[in-house]
Known about the structure:
This protein folds into two domains: 51-293, 3-Layer(aba) Sandwich (Aspartate Aminotransferase, domain 2); 296-467, Aspartate Aminotransferase, domain 1 (Alpha-Beta Complex). By secondary structure, it is an alpha/beta fold. The strands form three sheets. Strands 3-9-8-7-6-4-5 form a seven-stranded mixed beta sheet, with helices on both faces. A five-stranded mixed beta sheet has the order 10-11-14-13-12. The protein has a two-stranded antiparallel sheet with strand order 1-2. It is globular. Helices cover 37% and strands 14% of the residues.
Amino acid sequence: MPQRERSHAHILTQRIDIDDPTSSIAPPIYPSTTYARDNAHALPTVGPDGATLCYARPDNPTLRLPERMLAELEGGEDAALFASGMAAVTCVLNAVVRKGEIVFCPRRGYFAVRARIAEWCKAHGAEVMYYDPEESIEFPEEDVTTRAEGGRDRDVPVEKAPPLELPLSLFHRMAEMGQTMVPVALVWVESPANPTWDAMNITAVSILAKGFGARCVCVDSTVMTPICSKPLSLGADIVMHSATKYLNGHGDVLAGALVTKRKDGVWAKILHERKLGGAVLGSFDAYLLTRGMRTLELRVRHQSESALWLAKELSKAIVEKKVKLPSSNGAIVLYPGLEPTPEFPRPDYMFHKTNCPYGYYGGMLSVVFLVDRRQGQAKVKKPNLAKECAHFAANCRNWTCATSLGGFESLIEHRYSVEFSGPEYRNTPDDKQERRLVPHVPVGLLRLSVGLEKKEDLLRGFLQSLAEFKLPE
């Protein structure tokens, strides 16, 4: 009789047998960096699989507990923890991609990952092909701000930057690549894409990628977590998490994670790369991560419910003209769980529904203050709006202005200011490939990470701060 799938709560709260002679309820920490051999010069073993222990870089029983928890949560065969999310990203690139091959990267998504993929591929002789994450819909001549505005005023001429051969859908990009016969190493997916929360049909992407011979489909599921979505069940090969965020949830651990659907040759290379590259998580951080994961389902469910409620209430406030800054022309709310409306059809809503079968859509949303694009106002008001949004974020009541997400505290951030101030963009070279790294976020976008506070307090603080907003002289 097949074993029944265990609940999230059971996986997260169980006591896993790790050969602890004390039978402690709280798992022990093993800080040792090495392990003594017996009189026959044999290495000690641990766990039901009899894994040998030689040196802490590849062999650390403290890491195996959260790795096994995460693998079971995601429905994968194995998991590996890293010193950071970016270390996990780099490990995938090192293990999967070879010189002369192609990496498909979304045009929108976490800016550090896009920057790392571009830099790594340039240094290692691989090619990056950028695609629009809304893979079933093409907007080749519009920027993300126009899309975020729901196509407002498309008949009005808009000042455009020099053309950068804007990415098409993933299907069109792969069809274009197929004519060259260049091998596809990696398709990187981030769904929803931070911070505009575009969704991709992970199942369709995986089928498409395999049809074109892609070696690996890796999905960044940091924002959703396995409580909301399980990409491996949708066809992905590997799931990546910045475990710093929701998995830990307490803002005191820097960590990354990879989970594999199967223990194949690609996974063996990833483990080998982690072993020799050395970007492993320390024992104390692994212990804190395990403790944080115990409450993962409770936190994510609460944050998802609060975020959906806030998205709906803020949408109502927008209709009532309560969400406005001096240089803005209205606003919209971006949240994966918001249902389509005639004003904002949300063509990717069904992808969110498919990717999130448990009815939870995460704790992240964005409020986008729209630039007045008529009568040439965009060029004048765009810098003003950026300044107003940054000042509002830094002074918003009941929200902390800081760079991160997924913790117990609610955070607000003006991503346009953050991304343009980063070292990746301060001295953007003329190289067309690197010019693509210019932030593809609306100038008026505020990213909100909903924590565990009362949702009513968060809404009141946001609206009161708007009502009292005044830019300093």
